[in-house]
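INFO batch 0412 | record 1 of 1 | parsing
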Amino acid sequence: SEGKLLEAIAAYRRRRERIPLGTALPYAELLQQVMTTELGFSRVAVTGELARWCDTVTQVELLAAEPDPA
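INFO prediction complete | emitting tokens
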């Protein structure tokens, strides 16, 4: 839900140091799920350090596509 998304964003922003992959990946997956199921994006991909499976990351990066207007 939108509340979960906002909670995940707020929790993520509280962290300023490098974050272990195993901690950051659930945030990215939650954001990805909410963006597709709740916000209607047709496709959402995890990018950046998470997509490269770096041991630690500084941010969660996502790339989203809007649904076709057809």
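INFO post-check: Helices lie at 2-13, 21-37, 48-51.
INFO record closed
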